[in-house]
Design goal:
The chain is mostly beta strands and about 350 residues long. It folds into two domains: about 90 residues, Immunoglobulin-like; about 230 residues, YVTN repeat-like/Quinoprotein amine dehydrogenase (Methylamine Dehydrogenase, Chain H). The strands form six sheets. An eight-stranded mixed sheet has the order 21-22-23-24-8-27-26-25. The chain has a five-stranded mixed sheet with strand order 2-7-6-4-5, with no helix packed on it. It starts with a helix and ends with a strand.
């Protein structure tokens, strides 16, 4: 029943994707057989080679995403999502390479989390909130919309703006995160981000995105930056040179979770908004597996209802209070909540 609640909660189409696509075309008819319709984290591969012409195969070696594996390896210490499986087949003094696309899903059903409102604070109703984060007890916020995007330091108890920087009109502000006295702010489609001095808001650096499509949300674990781009992918960046050094793909046991937006690092997990949904998924950053979901939909009914009101967006963890602060785009309230597994 929990799984069906999860499907209803996010209205996601998580249709089961066939584990293998068409093998690479070849004259011999050799192909990789997985002996299964789907793969979950922790499964044993059980790979075989289909050999319709009964060639004299002397050796077969396998690689999964460029890493050598065996035909009966267990899928562990690996990230989820779409992968390339390659077999190098030796026969009759010849060598042929065949490949197959596979998808690896998570091996657990996400837990459902409930929340309790601890406090409610005022929030600027004109703020199209994109990023929210505490640093040394202070709340920082990034807002969006062209000609309206801002970077702010805010008194979370009163809603007063303590420091403000307006972005140029051609930039649409997105997520933010803070690491080692530096604030990293994304923009949406300009493929550009900014680095500021946290104390002065002086712009220290501008950086360009790599393979990631757009800038949506960003968080950090104290060492690495994690960046969403509006897809199911979360990119890892080196905070020194801002180079993307890889990514994870976010999956449940049934399918991928697209439209990942605002991110927050909380106790070793990534909490992520899903765009156009008033909920949050809890992600294992080592695999990309979704381990929990929180339905914040009722919060939207507690804010002033107006024409510009938009979805929940903005997650900030307060480590001293051990509470989570959430708000939304053009919401007039900031909620402090505690969550608990159902």
């Amino acid at each position: 029943m929990q799984f069906f609640k999860y499907l209803i909660l996010f209205c996601l189409s998580l249709a089961l994707i066939n584990c293998g696509e068409t093998n690479t075309a070849n004259q011999t008819g050799l192909s990789i057989d997985l002996n299964t319709k789907s793969l979950l984290l922790g499964d044993t591969l059980n790979l075989t080679i289909t050999n319709p012409k009964k060639l004299n195969i002397t050796n077969v070696s396998y690689q999964l995403d460029g890493k050598t594996i065996t035909k009966d390896d267990v899928l562990q210490n690996i990230t989820l999502g779409e992968k390339s499986l390659v077999a190098t087949v030796h026969y009759d003094d010849k060598t042929e390479t065949v490949s197959k696309s596979i998808t690896i899903y998570n091996n657990i059903i996400p837990s459902i989390y409930n929340y309790e409102i601890v406090n409610t604070y005022p929030h600027d109703i004109t703020s199209y909130t994109q990023g929210l984060e505490f640093y040394n007890g202070e709340l920082y916020e990034s807002t969006g919309q062209y000609k309206e995007s801002k970077l702010r330091k805010v008194n979370f108890e009163t809603g007063d703006v303590l420091k403000n920087v307006d972005l140029n009109d051609n930039f649409f502000g997105e997520g933010l995160t803070i690491l080692d006295e530096k604030l990293y702010q994304l923009t949406w489609r300009a493929k550009r981000g900014f680095v500021y001095d946290i104390n002065t808001f002086e712009k220290l650096k501008t950086f360009n995105y790599g393979t990631s499509k757009e800038g949506w949300g960003i968080c950090n674990d104290g060492i690495t930056l994690y960046k969403s781009d509006g897809t199911e992918k979360i990119w890892m960046l080196n905070p020194e040179n801002l180079i993307e050094k890889g990514h994870i793909e976010v999956y449940t046991e049934k399918g991928k979770i697209p439209s990942l937006n605002e991110l927050e690092w909380i106790d070793g997990k990534i909490f992520a908004n899903i765009y156009q949904k008033n909920g949050v998924v809890i992600i294992n950053p080592k695999t990309g597996g979704v381990e929990g979901v929180i339905n914040f939909t009722p919060l939207k009914e507690l804010v002033s209802q107006h024409q510009e009101l938009d979805v929940l967006n903005g997650i900030a963890y307060h480590p001293e209070r051990k509470t989570i602060f959430v708000t939304g785009k053009n919401w007039d309230k900031l909620f402090e909540v505690k969550i608990k597994k159902q």
